Amino acid sequence: MPAKSREPSPFHPQLRLVLRILRKRRGLAQYDVARQIRDEEGKPRSGEWLNQIESGRRRLDPDLAVQVADILKVNRSLMLRLVMLETWPVAATVVWNDLQVLKAADLASHLVASQSLPSGGASAHEP
Q1: Would you write out the chain's pLDDT as a tens digit for each of its 127 residues?
Q2: Contact, 50 vs 71, CB < 8 A?
Q3: How large is the C-alpha radius of gyration of the chain?
Q4: What is the residue-wise DSSP string for 98-115?
Q5: 71 neighbors 37 (Cβ within 8 angstroms)
Q6: Spans of all domains in the chain
Q7: What is the largest CA-CA distance in the chain?
Q8: pTM of the entire structure?
Q9: 15 CB-near residues (< 8 Å, 6+ apart)
Q10: How far, in whole angstroms, is CA 36 from its chain's centroid?
Q11: Residues near 54 by beta carbon (within 8 Å), at least 6 away in sequence
């Protein structure tokens, strides 16, 4: 039987580091953070649960990432970005690219609409 590897899995490499640093700077143990996080049934998480996330053996779900962000007093959006980019990197890239296309299309439509308005502000009617 092969020996178990002690190497962490690739789940959330940057997030793991951020969680550990923030938690320690706040003077909190893994248990202190985990017991404030509730699952779907309202039960608190265990310190082992957070240990598994910080060591890369478990993924952090986005809904729980919001709770972690609140407990550690960090921006929810930044925490979610770390989770999303590391959990679904291809999907995150696609969404980012789609947003850029939508922004460009929205900007272009505004430019076209503003050019069709006469200087008086009323809409132009074409014959």
Answers
A1: 444 444 444 566 778 888 899 999 999 999 999 999 988 899 999 999 999 999 888 888 888 889 999 999 988 888 888 887 766 666 656 666 666 666 666 666 655 555 555 555 444 444 4
A2: no
A3: 23
A4: HHHHHHHHHHHHHHHHHH
A5: yes
A6: 13-87, 90-127
A7: 83
A8: 0.60
A9: 53, 60, 79, 82, 83, 86
A10: 20
A11: 16, 19, 20, 23, 30
Bridge partners of residue 126, in order along the sequence: none
Which helix (H) or strand (E) segment holds residue 34: the answer is helix 30-34
- DSSP letters along 64-99, please? HHHHHHHHHT--HHHHHHHHHHHH-HHHHHHHHHHH
Whether residue 52 contacts residue 100, with contact meaning beta carbons closer than 8 Å, is answered with no
CATH class of 13-87: mainly alpha
- Residue 48 CA to residue 14 CA, distance in Å, equals 19
- Residue 103 dihedral angles phi and psi, to the nearest 5°: -60, -45
